[in-house]
Amino acid sequence: MSNIKTIGVIGAGQMGRGIAQVAAQAGLDTALFDVNSEGLSAGVEFIQKQMLRGVEKKKWSDSVATEVMARIQPCQALEELKDCDLLIEAATENKQIKFQIFKDLDKIAKESAILATNTSSISITEIAAATGRPEQVVGMHFMNPVPVMKLVEGIRGLETSEAVFDTVEAVAIKMGKTFIKVQDVAGFAINRILMPMINEAVYTLYEGVATVEDIDTGMKLGCNQPMGPLELADFIGLDTCLAIMEVLHEGLGDTKYRPCPLLKKYVLAKRFGRKSGRGFYEY
Ligand code: CAA
What we know:
Blueprint: E1 6-10, H1 14-25, E2 29-33, H2 37-56, H3 62-70, E3 72-75, E4 86-89, H4 95-108, E5 114-117, H5 124-128, E6 137-142, E7 151-156, H6 162-174, E8 178-183, H7 190-206, H8 212-223, H9 229-236, H10 238-252, H11 261-268
Parallel strand pairs: 1-2, 1-4, 2-3, 4-5, 5-6, 7-8
Antiparallel strand pairs: 6-7
């Protein structure tokens, strides 16, 4: 861990900006990269807002917020990440995009750099195979919202070395997270459990068993979940939920993972949840 001083985060979206925030809060110099300049500015502004909100709530001082922001370097060229000790990719959940990013990272990153991915469902082993250093590729799956959720799911690819796995565990702990160790199987552990629950909630709605509100109220009050499963699906993004169900269905080959037709229909209608303004709820 002592050798990890600088972190590069690829993608300034919902997950990337959260990862950059917790990295900078942990005292690490953090380069935040996004190809899209508007997305990059929005990401940095979001972190700034979170840091200022923390000052208002007396979670940390004004000078801490200033120091954290000073540790975040926005970047628009991947080459700017060449000296980072650990690179964490949090780009769009699309195989071809991720493979290309890892090919590019493998070219620009220094030899000792660890390449981590925040993928929620793509095989770490397959991503690692896109590089010439598969033993230095690892899964670091953060949960949304990253600054709030205490977990990092660590995923070992076929070739991931023990030393690399131990290093990212130490980095996650430094970021204030608890690290669980998981093998590289479709959906890993968290989504293997969470997504079928969400999918079943959609089936419960689809079959007319209960309304959206009653399903969510039932799971919130009956099972102490902070959000009902349909509200959570809107929060994660219905397109993401569907993509993960498809990975489980294809990867594990069991019909119990069949995505609900209603989930598919909502995605076809571009009802992606919060990010598109409409999912099971309107925003
Ligand atoms: N970024 C940073 N902080 C945030 C935030 C965000 N996007 N959203 C909320 N927060 C913070 C708030 O500032 C607040 O902080 P304080 O307590 O210090 O004041 C705290 O979270 C609670 O927020 P709120 O009071 O506004 O709202 P809440 O009590 O309803 O909590 C929630 C919001 C934390 C999101 C809660 O509803 C929750 O835990 N929901 C479940 C989230 C979950 O299950 N995430 C995992 C999704 S699965 C995943 O990420 C992996 C995948 O691959 C799909």
